[in-house]
Amino acid sequence: MNRTHFFKYLFLGLTGLMFFRKSRGNAQDKRCEIRLCSPFVAGFQYYDGFDVRHLLCTDDLLFLKREPANARDCYAIEVFQGEAKLGYLPRDENKVVARMMDQGVKVKARIVDIDQEESYYHKIKMKVFYEI
């Protein structure tokens, strides 16, 4: 092996090492979404959902807010898009999510599907998840 080959292999090896470190660093920066449930927004017709339905798009991030003082459901979770209250997480799917939120887990929601033809009960389907 002469000097030219030595430096060529050394350069290629260092380049590969730098690429490996960079790609490994990007993999650590990516977050994994853990889906908890995929319910419809409950009570869409009773709140601001009807007024803002034309502003809603698939993949919009929704804000979830715990409402432990709710008289009808102590595990109630409100669903907002901006300042507009769209409704609630359905009662049959909110207990685990509410307990996670009470423990400080940052639970998020995203619109998965908007069906304009469907009744108000099944108009907005969302995905509830947290990131790790």
Q: Keywords, please?
A:
about 130 residues, alpha+beta, Alpha-Beta Plaits, 2 domains, about 30% helix, metal-binding, hydrolase, zinc ion binding, hydrolase activity, acting on acid anhydrides, in phosphorus-containing anhydrides
Amino- and carboxy-terminal Cα gap: 49 Å
Compute the number of helices: 3
CATH architecture of the largest domain: 2-Layer Sandwich
Low-confidence stretches: none
The count of strands amounts to: 6
Shape designation = elongated
Protein name: HIRAN domain-containing protein
GO molecular function: hydrolase activity, acting on acid anhydrides, in phosphorus-containing anhydrides; nucleic acid binding; zinc ion binding
Domain HIRAN: 34-132
Pfam families: HIRAN
Describe this structure in words.
This protein has 132 residues and is of the alpha+beta class. The protein has two domains: 1-30; 33-131, 2-Layer Sandwich (Alpha-Beta Plaits), CATH 3.30.70. Helices cover 30% and strands 28% of the residues. It contains three helices and six strands, in the order H-E-H-E-E-E-H-E-E. A six-stranded antiparallel β-sheet has the order 1-6-5-2-3-4. The N and C termini lie far apart (49 Å). This is HIRAN domain-containing protein. Keywords: Hydrolase, Metal-binding. Residues 34-132 form the HIRAN domain.
